[in-house]
Amino acid sequence: HTLVFFFFFFFFFVKFFFGVLVTIYLLVLTVASQETDGFRRFLRSAKHFNYTIKVLGGGETWEGGDYMSPPGGGQKVRLLKSALEDIQEENKVILFVDSYDVIFSSGPKELLKKFQQAKHRVVFSAETLIWPDRHLEDKHPHVREGKRFLGAGGFIGYAPNLKKMVSDWSGADSDSDQLYFTKIYINPEKRKSINITLDSKCRLFQNLHGALDEVVLKFEDGRVRARNVLYDTLPVIIHGNGPTKINYLGNYIPNLWTFETGCTICNENLRPLSGLQSEYPGVVIGIFIQQPTPFVTVFFERLLNLKYPKNRIQLFIYNQESHHEPHVRTFLEYHESEYQGVKLIGPEEDIDPVTSRNIGFDMCRDNIDCEYFFSIDVDVVLKNEDTLRILIELNKPFIAPMMTKPGRLWTNFWGALSADGYYARSEDYVDIVQGHRVGLWNVPYVSHIFLIKADALRTDLKDPDLFESATLDPDMAFCSKVRNKGVFMFVTNMHTYGRVLSTENYQTNHLHNDLWQMFENPVEWEERYIHENYSKVLKDAFIETVNFYSVTKHFTCLYLSMEHFGQWSGGGNVDNRIQGGYENVPTIDIHMNQIGYEKEWHKFLLDYVAPVTEQMYPGYYTRFDLAFVVRYKPDEQPALRPHHDASTFTINIALNQVGIDYQGGGCRFLRYNCSIKAPRRGWALMHPGRLTHYHEGLPTVEGVRYIVVSFVDP
């Protein structure tokens, strides 16, 4: 890594002395040991305000520590002292700032004006919190209003005064610059001699550590800056010191996203894949199954539908759950040969989730053909088939598609960090989630799904302990280390990508467990089990008897759950399951409440049947009572004698297919001499029950027929 200084020169005429106009020169210095995403962001903001940049120095390795431990930063003081030795101009103003976590929100003219208004020769940024030695708190001078503790991440002053300030430095590179400057400031004689003050009201510098609630975005005339609402000031320099970093402010300032332009950087440095002459980039897709999860079969169906050449994909599948072994096994049985390669770790190998993540990363690191690792937890519903292509084309070291949960403000990212490094809601979070602001967003935390470049895994993120922490869960530990390595994590909401399932109440004690997910995951349940043409019935004209689309083939497996339960009624008149204990027209059946599906079935009727019934009979409130699955078979109960239903009207849904699973069946309405053949699987038949529609069940002559029956308004 190369150690560099960045010089920003600016000439500004500010004072008259004895009738002579004096030229003030501004020189801005910063130190960086490597070109990180944060450093590039710093340069971008400097370029926006037309600072002239000159690079000096080099060949040194950073030995100055980091912000997480008190020592560190001494190397900056040594380098500053060396640079100041070559500066002889009395009227040169030096601005010294960090770079990885700093952005400019205004230009040199405003900076110098505010510096002159401070009426001191040296102005330091100010902090809400004292660091690194809290025992020095009482020695800090009190201020009339504002912050009273010194921040070493940014200061401005005349060169002679700064020379005097650092002249006594003889510390090690790993010593604390913050502590060094603090001790100068709290010494009354030195403070007066050098003429030091603090920017207590954040007119020049805004340190974010401990001050998140003070700062909001201010949009004005096609540009964005930060406003300190506590002091009603507009800082020139924003410093994301401590664990908070720049937070969401860096997604806007100075003009990365505005209401007038939207995202100004979203189309920069893209990697187009359309029309690619060579092979697509090699990708390892890591699939992680760490808990019982609904709709795993659907997950693999969507994985197959990704629009990316399978011969450029290797799969790494980690499955910790025995319950999901059949799902994984079935997928691989039919599709393993389509992929470039597959590595499976099953529950029998007893590998913990953290180790599995590292193994997945290594599968990409060790394969020279791998350019990307695409990590997906199995509870992700990846609706957008172009997701992988879109993420690759955006060409970021680390990027995630925004995922949501229906009806909630939950997403797979955090908009900001709190002072202690945990979740904080950024002021733009809701607008991003609801799509009012669209773009690329640098965020401090992502989970469930992300794409990371193999180059990053082989360099900045090569450590084997990325997911390990004594205090943080693996996802938080990983994101913390990614941030500390200077790799930006981006989230994009420029397209709709999908959602994340709720897994909290998922039970695995049924034959078809996903059928019970109507309350926890209603959107996924509807997509899986309600017929795609169901809504057409609400637009059609009705007659007294209606036959319509209702459920998909996946729902009709309900009859298999009934067979698995196995406790079919005997078909006799005595039936203790119903009120009164007597059934006038008995069938071979199992009631919904016997398998614990009564609540789900009632919601199905309210959400999908009631709209149909109320359209047929406007103003007629729909109530439901008995619901059961009936089995017809030639050697058991092939048909049902003529009868009226104990209902105002009845709905029955065909659970299997006439002509394939059975022959015969259907319903005959005797009064009208009208017979309706057994409907197709998943279709519903609705007809009046009492008085007008005396009917019988026609014989099933071969196979087994299953229907689900509900009585409405009994």
Structure description:
- It is a peripheral membrane protein.
- Keywords: Dioxygenase, Endoplasmic reticulum, Glycoprotein, Iron, Membrane, Metal-binding, Oxidoreductase, Signal, Transmembrane, Transmembrane helix, Vitamin C.
- About 20% of the residues lie in helices and about 30% in strands.
- The chain has about 725 residues and is an alpha+beta fold.
- The strands form eleven sheets. Strands 1, 2, 3, 4, 5, 7, 8 and 9 form an eight-stranded mixed beta sheet that branches.
Supply the key terms.
41 strands, 28% strand, 8-stranded mixed β-sheet, 714 residues, disordered N terminus, alpha+beta, elongated, 22% helix
Q: What is the terminal-to-terminal distance?
A: 80 Å
Cα shape: elongated
User: What portion of the residues fall into strands of 2 or more residues?
Assistant: 25-35%
Count of discrete alpha- or pi-helical segments spanning 4 or more residues = 16
Question: For the residues shown, what is the average pLDDT?
Answer: 91
Strand count, sense and closure of the main sheet?
A: 8 strands, mixed
Residue share in helix = 10-25%
Q: Enumerate the spans where pLDDT stays under 50 for 5 or more consecutive residues.
A: 1-5
What's the total count of β strands? 41
Radius of gyration: 35 Å
Helix vs. strand class: alpha+beta
Tell me the quaternary state. single chain
Membrane topology: Peripheral membrane protein
InterPro entries: Collagen_mod_GT25, GT_PLOD, IPNS-like_FE2OG_OXY, Nucleotide-diphossugar_trans, Oxoglu/Fe-dep_dioxygenase_dom, Pro_4_hyd_alph, Procol_lys_dOase
Subcellular location: Rough endoplasmic reticulum membrane
Domain Fe2OG dioxygenase: 623-714
